[in-house]
Design brief:
Number of helices of chain B: 12
Strand content of chain B: under 5%
Shape of chain B: elongated
Order of helices and strands of chain A: HEEEEEHEEEEEEH
Structural class of chain A: alpha+beta
Helix content of chain B: 55-70%
Structural class of chain B: mainly alpha
Strand order of the largest sheet of chain A: 3-4-5-11-10-9-6
Mean pLDDT of chain B: 87
Strand content of chain A: 25-35%
Low-confidence stretches of chain A: 1-28
Radius of gyration of chain B: 22 Å
Distance between the termini of chain A: 78 Å
Number of strands of chain A: 11
Largest interface: A-B, 86 and 133 residues
Oligomer: heterodimer
Number of helices of chain A: 3
Order of helices and strands of chain B: EEEEHHHHHHHHHHHHEE
């Protein structure tokens, strides 16, 4: 950048007091360029960079630590613990049958609505109070997919979420996973929403799968992390759906 | 003195014409902008997508390594923070990395010197505010995962991939455009500096605003390690480079056309027309962003690197043409030692030994400052009339 503080010498025939409408170049200070290698020599650039980045990141780390949620207190036997269980009234169930594999699923139509259906499965949307979520029920030939493989396959296909990893927290562990009263495999996973603007909201995914030797049924229950948890509406609804599965 | 075959002006014997920058030794004919050594770093080819000399054209060759190490160590820090699972801290570092390097660059080369700091402050502040605004809009229009499962990527594609990146660049350009009206900011490199600073601040502001809720998830939230590494490198380095480069290239075209003392303000051709340059820059940012919708984390990083290379080549070409068209209408001054090559050259627009544009070198604090001895008096200036006026 160059200052325009002093008057440039005008060419002959040019009135120095009248500037042209589009007066473009006035490199009054251009003669100061080209002789110096910069105010910060190489080592000072690095020192300043390291100090500034360390201080900024350090302040950021302190802020993150301060706003971090505290760890939940451990539950004691015979005393109320954790958030209240999300109630789901007794309602008449809607029955859905897989035309491809013959298994049936029942779900409370007042809280869950089928947004997608195919011969092999369906997608249920949860709207219970202020919390939302999605339950995916999918069947596949047992010869093609074991329960563990089916979960991995469905998680890989899940769009809109990345950085997916198993939730290693003991408090969130699924105990005795299974589908339709058949033992199987399962786990809790966390991931983050995708976007080119940044890292989106944290998502919790409960996954359970089991097989009867003919068909493998996989159920995924997906909700934003702040709508998930052992006593959340999505977990309750997923339990209802998983236990309602009849293998035909 | 000999006559330059390119500009037909008198120039001292040497390797380059000090008036137009055309090579003198190789029988160069035609416009000086057709030469292959990059005007802001003549030791590099103009088509080489080198990061430091493209994004920070004011730096002399001896300062390149410092900024290279700073960028590399910043990227290394992002990887370390991801490996140690300090993901929220990594996001903060990713948002601050390039804005910090840009501020260091501005201070090092004394872009504003005795000019008001408000100009660079305005670029940075506008970029950051626009970035925060677009980050919040992106949060508001972001579809839920349920919606993505049910309706596919269409809503993501339209808003996160196309509309917001395109509009984001147009809005961030308002900051530099506010400075275009000031005659004191009259070099294409002024435009580059404003575009870079606004672009870096925009990318950082947007990242923090969109990811704010992740910062509240604790210092070490759950998450897969490798995708986090790719994401931090994408958000901290690769995506900001696309935004900065695209904004700077658009600013270069605008400054060359409307502000710089160029011999030919239309030297960039139709690509330099504002009606083409600004939407083209926005399209590049949009193209870089849309890859995120379809690709996994690692694939998107590779996609961004490809866009980085394209943007850097475009920016470099625009700076090169802009600097070589910026021939000053001034008499030849006394000889001095070039800060880039250390050779003796007569003062004018280019160094006669290495061919660097003297506009693309740091500014001394004053004529009496160390390193500026022998600068001689300020030469007289002749304004270049606006084309078509």
């Amino acid at each position: 950048m160059s200052a325009s503080g002093s008057s440039p010498t005008a060419p002959s025939g040019w009135d120095p007091h009248i500037r042209p409408l589009h007066f473009r170049g006035v490199h009054v200070h251009h003669h100061l360029r080209g002789q110096t290698r910069g105010r910060l020599r190489g080592h000072l650039v690095l020192v300043t960079f390291v100090v500034a980045l360390s201080v900024s990141v350090g302040i950021g780390a302190v802020v993150v630590a301060l706003v971090a949620p505290g760890s939940a207190p451990l539950c004691q036997p015979y005393t109320p613990c954790g958030p209240a269980t999300s109630g789901m009234g007794l309602v008449s169930q809607t029955v859905w049958r897989s035309s491809q594999y013959g298994f049936t699923v029942e779900y409370p139509g007042s809280a869950l609505s089928a947004s997608q259906q195919s011969g092999s499965g369906l997608v249920l949307d949860l709207q219970a109070g202020g919390s939302g979520g999605t339950i995916v029920v999918l069947g596949a030939p047992a010869a093609e997919a074991s329960p563990a493989k089916a979960i991995t396959s469905e998680l890989t296909k899940l769009s809109g979420v990345s950085q997916l990893a198993a939730d290693t927290s003991q408090a969130d562990r699924l105990l005795g996973p299974g589908v339709g009263y058949r033992s199987g495999v399962g786990g809790v996973y966390t991931g983050f929403g995708d976007a080119s603007q940044g890292v989106g909201g944290e998502q919790t995914i409960y996954a359970e799968s089991a097989t009867d030797g003919r068909v493998t049924i996989t159920v995924l229950a997906i909700a934003p992390a702040n709508d998930a948890g052992p006593k959340s509406a999505i977990a309750q609804a997923a339990d209802l759906v998983i236990n309602s599965v009849r293998w035909s | 003195m000999i006559e330059c075959q390119s500009c037909e002006g008198d120039t001292p014997e040497g390797r380059f014409c000090i008036r137009c920058g055309a090579p003198l030794e190789q029988g160069h004919t035609g416009r000086s902008s057709s030469r292959s050594p990059y005007a802001a770093a003549p030791h590099e080819h103009v088509a080489l997508p080198a990061l430091v000399s493209s994004l920070f054209p004011h730096l002399p060759r001896s300062s390149h390594w410092g900024f290279r190490i700073a960028l590399l160590s910043g990227a290394g820090l992002l990887v370390v923070l991801a490996v140690t699972r300090l993901f929220p801290v990594g996001l903060i570092a990713a948002a601050l990395l390039l804005p910090l390097v840009v501020v260091l660059y501005v201070i090092d080369v004394d872009v504003y010197e005795d000019e008001p700091v408000w100009a660079m402050g305005l670029s940075l502040a506008w970029g950051a505010l626009a970035g925060v605004g677009f980050g919040l809009i992106a949060v508001a229009v972001s579809p839920s995962l349920t919606s993505v499962i049910n309706h596919g990527h269409s809503q993501y594609l339209v808003w996160q991939g196309l509309v917001l990146p395109f509009l984001g660049l147009l809005v961030l350009m308002i900051g530099p455009l506010m400075l275009l009206r000031y005659h004191r900011f009259n070099s294409v490199l002024d435009g580059v500096a404003f575009g870079l600073s606004a672009g870096a601040a925009f990318a950082g502001g947007q990242l923090i605003a969109y990811s704010a809720h992740v910062l509240g998830n604790g210092i070490r939230p759950q998450g897969a390690l490798v995708p986090w590494i790719w994401r931090l490198l994408s958000f901290g380095v690769a995506l900001p480079i696309v935004t900065m480069g695209a904004a700077a290239a658009a600013c270069t075209a605008l400054w060359l056309r409307y502000r710089a003392p160029a011999r030919d303000a239309e030297a960039l051709g139709w690509v330099g027309h504002p009606a083409v340059a600004v939407p083209l820059a926005a399209l590049l940012v949009m193209g870089a962003s849309v890859g995120e919708v379809f690709l996994p984390s690692g694939g998107w990083l590779g996609w961004l690197v490809a866009f980085d290379l394209v943007v850097l080549v475009l920016l470099r070409r625009a700076i090169h043409v802009g600097l070589l068209e910026e021939s000053l209408e001034i008499p030849i001054g006394p000889t001095f030692t070039c800060a880039n090559c250390g050779g003796e050259t007569a003062r004018h627009t280019f160094c006669g030994q290495c061919g660097i544009s003297l506009q693309a070198l740091p500014k001394a604090r004053s004529e009496g400052a160390p390193g500026s001895a022998g600068a001689g008096p300020a030469p007289t200036i002749t304004p270049t009339p606006e084309p078509g006026t």
